[in-house]
Amino acid sequence: MAIDDLRKLVKRAGKTGDFIIQHVDRCVGCGNCVKICPVGAWQLYQKKAVIAKDYREKCVECGSCWLSCDADAIEFRYPDGGTGVVWEYG
Ligand code: SF4
Ligand code: SF4
Asked: What CATH code is carried by the domain that includes residue 38?
């Protein structure tokens, strides 16, 4: 499924604030988060992962980046109640 098609499956509510925090000092540049993120929110830059500045508008809150990071360099929590993505289908 293309990224744009995936994004069409959700609507977004409210302002989430930051719900993903990256600890750059712990990142070992393995690229797991880059490979697994279904919406391409992560990139490798100079052997460190960087999350997109607009990740709040891209992220579908799957938590895969957090689960895939063996270096414990990513913190993920669901946005506060009433904010974030709402799956419309599926
Ligand atoms: S999965 Fe973790 S260690 Fe690997 S590139 Fe991403 S943030 Fe860095
Ligand atoms: S939670 Fe899922 S969609 Fe959001 S940045 Fe992580 S891997 Fe990508």
From this structure: 3.30.70.20
- Which amino acid appears at position 46 of this protein? Q
Q: Is 31 helix (H, G, I), strand (E, B) or coil?
A: coil
**Rounded to an integer, what distance in angstroms lies between the CA atom of residue 70 and that of residue 4?**
28
Give the global pTM: 0.91
Question: Relative to the alpha carbon of 22, which ligand is closest?
Answer: 1
Total domains present in the chain: 1
| Closest residue to atom 6 of ligand 1, CA basis | 33
Are the CB atoms for 55 and 41 separated by under 8 Å? yes
Domain of 47 in residue numbering reads as 3-80
Q: What is the pLDDT of residues 27-41, one digit of tens each?
A: 999 999 999 999 999
In a domain, 90, yes or no: no
Instruction: Compute the distance from residue 77 Cα to the ligand 1 centre, in Å.
Output: 17
Answer yes or no: is 45 within a domain. Answer: yes
